[in-house]
Amino acid sequence: MSKLLVTGGCGFIGANLVSMLRAKGHEITILDDFSRGNVEYLDDAAAYRIVQADIRDEDSVLKAATGKEA
Fold first, then answer.
1. Torsion sign, CA atoms 32, 17, 5, 43
2. Which residues share a beta bridge with 7?
3. Gap between the Cα atoms of 40 and 26, Å rounded
4. Is 65 exposed, middle or buried (0-12, 13-18, 19+ CB in 10 A)?
5. Do 26 and 2 meet the contact criterion of CB atoms below 8 Å apart?
6. Rounded to two decimals, what is the model's pTM?
7. 22-45: per-residue pLDDT in tens?
8. Containing H/E element for 13?
């Protein structure tokens, strides 16, 4: 099991990706600014750590990526 960070994970494509990764046993953190994404796209929002931040915010990205393998 890997600890992964997925940016844009609450968008249509990202939500499908995180669902597949979680089904393979990975622990997922999602970083999304919700400009287009929505928690309702996720199969089980409680199963993910969700960080609301813009990918251009370097500090937020570094904090969200801490301890992740990819």
1. positive
2. 31
3. 20
4. middle
5. yes
6. 0.92
7. 999 999 999 999 999 999 999 999
8. helix 12-23
